[in-house]
Amino acid sequence: MNKSFATQVEVPKLKDSLLLRQNAFINGEWVKAKSGNTYSVLDPATNKEIGKVPEMNVEDTKEAIKAAKESFNNWANQTAKYRHDLLQKWYTLIIDNQQDLAIILTLENGKPINEALGEIKYGASFIEWFAEEARRVYGDVIPSPIKNSKIIVQKQPVGVAGIITPWNFPNAMITRKLGAALAAGCTVVIKPSHDTPFSALALAELAVRAGFPKGVINVITTEQHAEVGLELTTNPDVKKISFTGSTNVGKLLMQQSSSTLKKISLELGGNAPFIAFDDANVEAAVEGLIASKFRASGQTCVCANRIYVQSSIYAEFASLLADKVSGFKVGSGFDPQTTHGPLINSKAVDKVTRHIEDAVAKGAEILVGGVRRDGNFFDPTVLTGMSADMIITNEETFGPVAALYKFDKDEEVIKLANNSHVGLAGYFYSRDVGRCWKVADALEVGMVGVNTGIISTCEAPFGGVKESGFGREGSKHGIDEFLNLKYISFGGL
Which residues form the active site (predicted)? Predict the structure, then answer.
């Protein structure tokens, strides 16, 4: 492992400084909190302040909901072509400003700048996709069993949508939800993570430039998660909640939303299995694992957490993986030599440390890494000799730790892979077509990567099963999460 890493690196200047907004956005205006309070947003690489944003409370949240409600009818009654055109303009502005958006993202999230650029393009793809889907919200004409009558099915927007997003993909987690909501004809109140509000505010600034009407998009910033979340989930004027985050918080939001029977979609925690079978291309499997496991320093809900390697290739796989990981460089996301940035905060580092210490105490071996650095940095780590009684087996690490388990038979590993209360993503490598179909069918997850470690794309439905939540984002299915079905029966014709 290259032990040197830099945190004090010059931050590129924004070409357009107006994209770094330090006020919230309600009803087309950049506003402060009614209380006047603010909180600081820190760069996870240096723990230095990037800026301050309003500390908004329930009163502010109610104002944002009111603005969204008052703008809903006008927005919902616009033509699909009109909404398409605005979304397309917004997409173009995002692409035109991708460098500045990536700088803002790296500042508040820490991921390397090239990785941040990749997220901006990925996030923009959902705006483009749902711009097109806005014009494809088709209904049905159903043959009636009664003469002189017709059965019609329409799709209509649900109303005001509350969107609650995490810090690990502060651009794409918003666009993936927001693109679908706006295309469907919903208005929105967005509560981004308190750690990464600037990406959301930059998107709102570009939405203004695209020409979105006042009140259609609202962004509230706050560290007061509980009370603001409670308002969004219990306010009767909010008809839909879309949340990405932990399973525990998702359960709470669902419980709260039951008071008004809101439509809800949840993309929650994962504990993804990754399986390397003995007939796999070992080098390709290692590369696929690295792409899945170490992207965003392991801070993704779909990254591999339990890595099962068949006995006959276990030693080769572990050695090759350790060699690759030893070449990583940890540091500031603005250092061109950096491959992996910091974790989001000290709590994240504490969790990684706890998982590794538990594994080692129970017999695991550290092949590479395992070192906690100053601040929020942790060396990418490879562990071997993992067993079922270790914390990592049952708890998502959300950090740069590749934990390798040995297995012998296909039936054994499928049982191990499915032995989890969550089921978001799963991956495996094999060159046997029959085995590929069998394992893909057997894995109890919402998404499967076969001979690939990257599965996310706007064309495909993203989401999980079991306690990883329900509902889908992206694809032709994503817009349905923000639509209601209306059945119309015409008689006397």
Answer: 267
What one-character DSSP code corresponds to residue 378? B
Q: What is the DSSP string of 100-125?
A: HHHHHHHHHH---HHHHHHHHHHHHH
Which amino acid appears at position 189 of this protein?
V
Block residue for tokens 């040197």: 4
Q: Which of 308, 422, 334 is nearest to 105 (CA)?
A: 334
* Residue 6, pLDDT score: 56
pLDDT score recorded for residue 125 = 98
Q: What is the mean pLDDT of residues 318-340?
A: 97
Catalytic: which of 119, 128, 231, 267? Answer: 267
How far is the C-alpha of 392 from the C-alpha of 402, rounded, in Å?
A: 10
Using CA atoms, how far apart are residues 85 and 80, in angstroms rounded to an integer?
9
Neighbouring-strand partners of residue 275: 308, 428
> What does the block give as tokens for 279?
């007939």
Nearest to 446 by CA among 465, 474, 459: 465
At CB < 8 A and 24+ separation, what contacts does 429-437 make? 429/275, 429/276, 429/277, 429/280, 429/281, 429/284, 429/285, 429/288, 430/277, 430/279, 430/280, 431/279, 431/280, 431/281, 432/277, 432/279, 435/277, 435/279, 435/410
Closest CA to 106 of 445, 361, 336, 381: 336
Residue type at position 390: M
**CA–CA distance, 445 with 425 (Å, rounded to integer):** 5
Q: Which of 481, 432, 29 is nearest to 266 (CA)?
A: 481
CA atoms of 158 and 202, how far apart (whole Å): 26
Alpha-carbon gap, residue 240 to 262, rounded angstroms = 5
Output the six-digit token pair for 23: 């006020």
Beta carbons within 8 Å of 73's beta carbon, 6+ residues apart: none
Give tens-digit pLDDT for 27-54: 999 999 999 999 999 999 999 999 999 9
What strands, in cross-sheet order, belong to the sheet with 150-157? 140-142, 150-157, 483-490
481 catalytic? Reply is no
Distances, alpha carbon 69 to alpha carbons 434, 483, 484, in Å: 53, 16, 17
Q: Which residues contact 379 (CB under 8 A, 6 or more apart)?
A: 1, 330, 368, 369, 370, 371, 372, 373, 400
The token duo for 264 is 């809800």
Beta strand extents in 283-385 (DSSP E only): 304-310, 365-368, 381-384
How much is the pTM? 0.96
For residue range 343-390, what is the model confidence (pLDDT) as tens digits? 999 999 999 999 999 999 999 999 999 999 999 999 999 999 999 999
Phi/psi of residue 231, nearest 5 degrees: -65, -45
Per-residue b/e over 321-342, b at no fewer than 16 CB within 10 Å?
A: bbebbeebbbbbbbbeebbbbb
Within 8 A by CB and 6+ apart from 306, the residues are 271, 272, 273, 274, 386, 392, 393, 403, 405, 416, 417
